[in-house]
Amino acid sequence: MKLTQNFSLQEFNCKDGTQVPQKYIANATEVAQNLEILRSFLDKPILISGSGYRTKSHNKKVGGASKSQHLTASAADISVTGLQPMQIAEAIETLIDQGKMKQGGLGVYPTFVHYDIRGTKVRW
């Protein structure tokens, strides 16, 4: 199922094989809509490299926060070929500042960036 022009629901499925529950599809769609804005800004494909949705057991297995945004498909761990995570995060910050992407959580890791749509500014 296509969520947006360039993102499918399958990309958000948990890495343990569990599909995004019906009640969280709207969250995954909102994340995908925001990632489309980033994709257009960067003019490069975005890979959901780690997680979109996570089950509670998978979240625990990977050391996720107990109230992780991934538990409700409200987040995505992303990478972009040719860009460092800090470059991706800076682009997201720019788009948030311009009011084009939703404010939320932004975490920079060695190989990916976490972005979520929680609505409040949280950085790590």
Mean pLDDT: 97
Strands, total number: 5
Reading the helices and strands in chain order gives HEHEHEEE
The best one-word shape is: globular
Q: How many strands, what sense, and barrel or not for the largest sheet?
A: 5 strands, mixed
The level of helicity is 25-40%
Low-confidence stretches: none
Pfam families: Peptidase_M15_3
InterPro entries: Peptidase_M15A_C, Zn_M74/Hedgehog-like
Domain Peptidase M15A C-terminal: 6-116
Organism: Flavobacterium alkalisoli
How would you characterize this protein structure?
- The chain has one domain: Muramoyl-pentapeptide Carboxypeptidase, domain 2, CATH 3.30.1380.10.
- With 124 residues, it is an alpha+beta fold.
- It is globular and about 35 Å long.
- The protein has helices spanning 25-42, 56-61, 85-97; strands at 47-48, 75-79, 105-108, 113-116, 122-123.
- The chain has three helices and five strands, in the order αβαβαβββ.
- Strands 1-2-4-3-5 form a five-stranded mixed β-sheet.
- Strand 3 (105-108) and strand 4 (113-116) form a beta hairpin.
- The mean pLDDT is 97.
- It is 30% helix and 14% strand.
- The N and C termini lie far apart (32 Å).
